[in-house]
């Protein structure tokens, strides 16, 4: 392919959060340090936060988190990285004649700067950033833009940029979620209540304008409508709060306890904010929250996997790419 051909071919960069390179305390500490020191993620004064992070939190958490990663580690790396690569490979295979598709991570390898350099070295002058987060948040999607801008800080000839801010209400996304739930119900006894459990954010982020909670609510309501669920058959909640600040509610663990106390014996749980299963969904949502529900008196708890590399998610990304590159 000639240099001129590359200039006409749009480069697409799928971006996910990142993961430790190895399931070791040192690798986990390196990853968490990079992730949690981002002011977009933890918006606290650095003079207070960074000493606490590096002197207390990382030494205490890294070994424990490394053990959890060791339990789910795959031959080629962590589930998030392996699944993200599978998605990229399948999207690339479908679109190879029109786009060059890359995968980057915000806080680990392959680093956004490294991938952007590859794109520029290839002569591309059009870049589509596609963060793999259906719902926008200042703590997930915004850092993708930050990292991209930083990567180009010393570049004289900037390529054209388009960025998919979110896709929380895309019909193909809503239908893919609904179909994955239906498929789960065909294989497993349907629970009394379906929980849409999203990763939480601090309440103050939402007060400052982060649209994430509203987008989560819209996603859940649209999927529930497609499934024909009544109001008492589904609930929205948020998991993974951290620190002492109040986070958006209701909290998933507390809601599970309430449901058990109300006599609900079976629940199904899906985490629509995750495009790929990772430590959080596999360990926390699938296992920890399950144990809490059963200990509270529940009897059946089923986690419904992320869309991962299934054909509907691959087709969704292809549609998003085509839609956001129209006119290029």
Automatic annotation (TrEMBL):
Localization per Swiss-Prot or TrEMBL: Cytoplasm
Ordered alphabetically, the record's keywords are: Cytoplasm, Heme biosynthesis, Iron, Lyase, Metal-binding, Porphyrin biosynthesis
Question: Which GO cellular component terms are attached?
Answer: cytoplasm
Q: Does the keyword Hydrolase belong to this entry?
A: no
| EC number of this enzyme | 4.98.1.1
Catalysed transformations (reactions): heme b + 2 H(+) = protoporphyrin IX + Fe(2+); Fe-coproporphyrin III + 2 H(+) = coproporphyrin III + Fe(2+)
- CDD domains of this UniProt entry? Ferrochelatase_C (cd00419), Ferrochelatase_N (cd03411)
Keyword Transmembrane in annotation: no
Q: Which InterPro entries match?
A: Ferrochelatase, Ferrochelatase_AS, Ferrochelatase_C, Ferrochelatase_N
Q: Pfam families per the record?
A: Ferrochelatase (PF00762)
User: What pathway is this protein said to act in by its record?
Assistant: Porphyrin-containing compound metabolism; protoheme biosynthesis; protoheme from protoporphyrin-IX: step 1/1
**A molecular-function term among this protein's GO annotations:** metal ion binding
| Gene Ontology BP term (one) | heme biosynthetic process
Gene3D superfamilies reported for this sequence: 3.40.50.1400
Q: What class of enzyme is it?
A: lyase
Binding annotation for Fe(2+): 199, 280
In the record, the note on similarity to other proteins reads:
Belongs to the ferrochelatase family.
**Function (record text):** Catalyzes the ferrous insertion into protoporphyrin IX.
State the protein's name: Ferrochelatase
Organism phylogeny: Bacteria, Pseudomonadati, Pseudomonadota, Gammaproteobacteria, Alteromonadales
